[in-house]
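A reminder from the course coordinator: this example appears on the midterm review sheet, so study it carefully.

Given structure:
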């Protein structure tokens, strides 16, 4: 294992931000991780764990050590009467893993197709799309204590999942490196078709209602609405959908009959952040080298040469405008190093 100095990180984050790591290494096996943990020369540095860089805003200079998780492997662990238990290494590309499960007849993750990033990052963010969240199928997470090197297993409940959040983003942030993730996938297929345009896309393509076809529909929808990070830098949906009191939602509906909202927990509703941002005139609008995507107001894009300051300046302006018009707070989704 090699430690590299002053490494350009622009290729390691989907926003394509200009950033440099003072120290950088790729991690392929647990033995090398133990070597890092026992290395006195880097023990007291700030460590940053990097997955696919798809939910991350990097500063111009990253002090300390950046560890790119690059372990691979996926397998069927065992099966029970009603479920398959499938394990994947943290460094696996998420969508490649999803497609592998579908090819082998392990269904459930089809609605999460084409989400960028890695398997190890999925539970940190509790990724979700089209009515499904990763917590719905996650069985357990195997993580490494970055102080002791010991492996610890977290069951679903111990991960403390909530909307786009988990223990690994809160109390466990910086303490653990996720190494493997095990999923519990049902043998009895239950397709989630009622969110977004999935049914409409299936009909458009003349596809029957199967898990692989739902994946095809989701990929088609995402491709039509979201920019490819290889073409234009972006981190997907940049803002979380705000959850507000139902009374506030009702008041807003009186003034804005087209307000997009969904029931959340009791007494609360989730508002569509993209709709709020669009109403404030930000769809397709630029601020310096960054802007909101012309086809989806929820997606912040890098038109070229942007850095973290540019991103946060735009994000703050969008938040201010939504707050001023609707009295609603929206919050950025990506992690800020």
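Designed residues:
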């Amino acid at each position: 294992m090699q430690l590299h100095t002053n490494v350009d990180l622009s290729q390691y984050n989907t926003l394509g931000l200009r950033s440099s790591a003072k120290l950088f290494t790729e991690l392929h096996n647990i033995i090398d991780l133990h070597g890092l943990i026992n290395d006195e020369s880097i023990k007291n540095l700030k460590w940053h764990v990097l997955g696919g860089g798809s939910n991350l805003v990097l500063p111009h200079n990253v002090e300390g050590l950046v560890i790119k998780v690059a372990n691979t492997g996926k397998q069927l662990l065992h099966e029970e009467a009603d479920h398959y238990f499938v394990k994947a290494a943290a460094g696996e590309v998420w969508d490649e893993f999803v497609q592998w499960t579908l090819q082998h007849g392990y269904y459930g993750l089809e609605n999460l197709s084409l989400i960028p990033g890695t398997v190890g990052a999925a539970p940190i963010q509790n990724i979700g799309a089209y009515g499904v969240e990763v917590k719905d199928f996650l069985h357990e997470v195997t993580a490494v204590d970055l102080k002791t090197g010991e492996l610890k297993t977290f069951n679903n409940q111990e991960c403390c999942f909530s909307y786009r959040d988990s223990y690994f983003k809160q109390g466990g942030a910086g303490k653990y490196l996720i190494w493997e993730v095990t999923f519990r996938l049902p043998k009895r297929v239950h397709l989630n078709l009622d969110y977004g345009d999935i049914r409409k896309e299936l009909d458009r393509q003349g596809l029957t209602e199967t898990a692989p076809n739902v994946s095809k529909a989701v990929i088609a929808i995402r491709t039509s609405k979201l920019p490819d990070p290889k073409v234009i830098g972006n981190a997907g949906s940049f803002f979380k959908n705000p959850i507000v009191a139902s009374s506030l939602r009702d008041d807003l509906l009186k003034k804005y009959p087209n307000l997009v909202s969904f029931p959340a927990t009791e007494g609360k509703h989730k508002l569509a952040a993209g709709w709020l941002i669009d109403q404030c005139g930000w769809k397709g609008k630029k601020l310096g080298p960054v802007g909101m995507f012309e086809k989806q107001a929820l997606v912040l894009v890098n038109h070229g040469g942007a850095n973290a300051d540019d991103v946060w300046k735009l994000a703050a302006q969008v938040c201010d405008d939504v707050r001023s018009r609707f009295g609603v707070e929206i919050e950025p989704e990506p992690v800020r190093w």
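The mean pLDDT is 96. The two ends are 24 Å apart (CA to CA).
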